[in-house]
Amino acid sequence: MREPLTPPQSLGARLLARLRDYAQLMRLDRPIGIWLLMWPTLWALWIAGEGHPRPDVFVVFVAGVVLMRSAGCVINDFADREIDPHVERTRSRPLAEGRVSAIEALCLAAGLGAIAFGLVLTMNRLTVLLALAGAALTVTYPFLKRFSHLPQVWLGASFGWAVPMAFAAQTGSVPRVAWLLFVAVVVWAVVYDTMYAMVDRDDDLKLGVGSTAILFGEADRPILAVMQGLFLLALWLVGRLAGLGDWYLVSVGVAAGMALWQQRLIRHRDRDDCFRAFLNNHYLGMAVFIGIVLDYTFRQA
């Protein structure tokens, strides 16, 4: 008996399915990366603008965060298209399953990057020059794991680069407090992305790709604890330089409590708990931003 023929999909259904694949490739269904890039960008915008960032700068940077994080995800999946099918967490990604071709991915990344750069061109010359350096960081990051155990540091620099860019766009310069905040963001990114890499450590070891989770080995928890302490110290120093007061200090204290909670979650190095610790950093970033906003708001009340 012949199998019934599957009715062909309509053009609209095929287009919708393709757009869904692109959205998944851009990781729009998993916005945690957008938030982890957004929070330090907002910290920088509010501090640079002393609580009142320029509306045009705010719009450009918020849109830029979404566009560049999406482009970074596409480039990452293009670079890992031969690796992802062998990793439990990533084998269902559109490129890994062949639902999107490599050429499509490159065109999508180029389009997103072009839109982001078009937005940056509305800013001053220093911001544009910094954006070019930021684009280089974004494009090269996914390839580092093939010959280095420090891709998390490069990711931190990529995510943190929005900080000097925000100060440049808002003030026309990059002061000392901006570079200190940049260092804080780099350290923070290494912490949370190491927690993320702990989820894939077994798969990465089999595939021969590097990460700080592999580099740190059994010393991962104490090293992360030290780095969390350095991150919190850097945030405190940023507050001192920026003249932030009690509301901000309370938010840093909340961040410290969350760091302790993350240490508790990763204590057995369970995959699911390490991933929960990684996700918790969204709330840590939010807490710090709330403290910054409240400090500037009530200072001028």
Throw out a few tags for this protein:
301 residues; Tetracycline Repressor, domain 2; 14 helices; mainly alpha
Offer a concise description of the structure.
The chain is mostly helical and 301 residues long. It contains 14 helices and no strands. 74% of the residues lie in helices and 0% in strands.
Description:
With 301 residues, this protein is mainly α. It has one domain: UbiA prenyltransferase (Tetracycline Repressor, domain 2, Orthogonal Bundle), CATH 1.10.357.140. Helices cover 74% and strands 0% of the residues. It is built from 14 helices and no strands. It has helices at 11-25, 32-48, 55-79, 94-97, 102-120, 125-140, 151-160, 162-171, 176-199, 201-207, 212-216, 220-242, 246-265, 271-299. Helix 8 runs antiparallel to helix 9, helix 12 packs antiparallel against helix 13 and helix 13 (246-265) packs antiparallel against helix 14. The protein starts with 10 loop residues before the first helix and ends with a helix. The model has no long low-confidence stretch (mean pLDDT 91).
